[in-house]
Write a structure and sequence with these properties.
By secondary structure, the chain is an alpha/beta fold. The chain is 31% helix and 20% strand. It has eight helices and eight strands; from the N terminus they run βββαβαβαβααβαβαα. Strands 1-2-4-3-5-6-7-8 form an eight-stranded mixed sheet, sandwiched between helices. Helix 6 links the parallel strand 7 and strand 8.
């Protein structure tokens, strides 16, 4: 059963969905740009068998506040504040795409708060060609101003993000989407190499791995989260 709840962090209300046994280790899920907590529906039932799963709506998304002030660093601070309000000390953390950037920023700045880190098809923080996205028609479930602000940061990331990947102490699994993904896979491989002890597995279904191949995703992620030591990623066709 999934419960919808919210907390207030620095004057911003953050919505989240929680499921799983209350007496198990906490697992936090961070969605991609333009998504929200419901994006994880295909995999939460499996992950929640052994974890207390908290799936957040990041600021400017879904049922959380749309405060008009946006950056990936503010999202990171929101997540940290949420952990503090909920009394969650050290957590396991999964981030997809933009959510993965927020996740590794948290793991860089507060390594003692992240035990295991899963980065799903997350780009390495290197400058890329800047483009201006086109706003979709109709009502949106996210703040378009947030998209513009975050895209600027992803196109021209702070150089310290790359430099500080080596500060991450969490056991880290990088899950790549293979050649069908729009994210350059050599960059994802570099991301895994720059994180001490980082390991990579490719599930070649494109960028939306946990949507397109939920069974493969939960199999490899669950094995990683439950492994006590010497986790070796499976190979996928």
């Amino acid at each position: 059963m999934v419960d919808l709840r919210s907390v207030e962090v620095g004057g911003v209300r953050l919505a989240y969905e929680v499921s799983g046994p209350p007496d198990t280790a906490p697992l936090v899920l961070l969605h991609a740009l333009g998504e929200d907590a419901t994006d994880w529906e295909a995999v939460v039932p499996v992950l929640a068998r052994s974890r207390r799963v908290h799936a957040l709506d990041l600021r400017g998304h879904g049922r959380s506040n749309w405060p008009g002030e946006y950056s990936l660093e503010l999202m990171q601070a929101d997540v940290l504040g949420c952990l503090d309000v909920l009394g969650l000390g050290t957590v396991d953390l999964i981030g997809h795409s933009m959510g993965g950037i927020v996740a590794y920023l948290l793991a860089e700045d507060h390594p003692h708060r992240v035990s295991r880190l899963v980065l799903e098809d997350v780009p390495v923080p290197r400058p890329r060609e800047q483009t201006t996205p086109t706003r979709p028609d109709g009502d949106l479930t996210f703040d378009w101003e947030m998209v513009l602000a975050v895209r600027r940061q992803i196109d021209a990331p702070d150089p310290r993000w790359l430099e500080r990947l080596s500060d991450i102490t969490a056991e880290t699994l990088v899950v790549a989407g293979g050649p069908r993904s729009h994210v350059p896979q050599d960059g994802i491989a570099e991301l895994a190499c720059r994180i001490p002890g980082g390991r990579m597995v490719t599930i070649p279904v494109g960028h939306l791995i946990h949507h397109t191949a939920p069974e493969a995703f939960t199999e490899v992620v669950s094995a990683f989260l439950l492994a006590e030591e010497d986790f070796r990623p499976a190979r996928w066709p």
